């Protein structure tokens, strides 16, 4: 989990910086506000696509998304157990 966190910590700000730099070179007539807005939207779009992809992978790997647990899950940590305690 820690390498994934470190990778995301480097990837998304790096993508923002790369996009801002590229827009400064390709569109010098744009203001800094325009470049930041476009860069932010691009990074948000990439993050949304990656989150959607990971959600699809998770959904496809479970037979029953609501009660399905990973190999390390216990009854106490499942969504089913949490919802049955509320009733």
Would you mind describing this structure in some detail?
This is TLC domain-containing protein 3A isoform X2. The chain crosses the membrane at residues 6-23. It contains 3 helices and no strands. With 87 residues, it is mainly α. The protein has one domain (1-85). It is elongated and about 55 Å long. The two termini are 33 Å apart. The relative contact order is 0.07. The model has no long low-confidence stretch (mean pLDDT 82).
Annotate the secondary structure layout:
Layout: H1 2-26, H2 32-61, H3 79-86
Helix pairs in contact: 1-2
Annotation keywords:
membrane, transmembrane, TLC domain-containing protein 3A isoform X2, 87 residues, transmembrane helix, elongated
Gist?
The chain is mostly helical. It has three helices and no strands. The chain has one domain (1-85).
Structural class designation: mainly alpha
The rough form would be described as: elongated
Percentage of helical residues?
Answer: over 70%
Mean pLDDT: 82
Major β-sheet profile = none
Identify low-pLDDT runs: none
Number of helices: 3
Number of domains: 1
Strand content: under 5%
Number of strands: 0
Distance between the termini: 33 Å
Evaluate the radius of gyration: 20 Å
H and E string: HHH
């Amino acid at each position: 989990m820690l390498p994934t966190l470190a990778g995301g910590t480097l990837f998304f700000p790096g993508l923002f910086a790369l996009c801002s730099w590229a827009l400064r070179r390709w569109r010098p007539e744009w203001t800094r506000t325009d470049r930041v807005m476009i860069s932010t939207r691009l990074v948000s779009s990439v993050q949304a696509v990656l989150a959607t992809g990971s959600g699809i992978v998770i959904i496809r790997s479970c037979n029953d998304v609501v009660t399905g647990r990973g190999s390390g899950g216990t009854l106490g940590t499942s969504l089913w157990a949490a919802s049955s305690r509320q009733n």
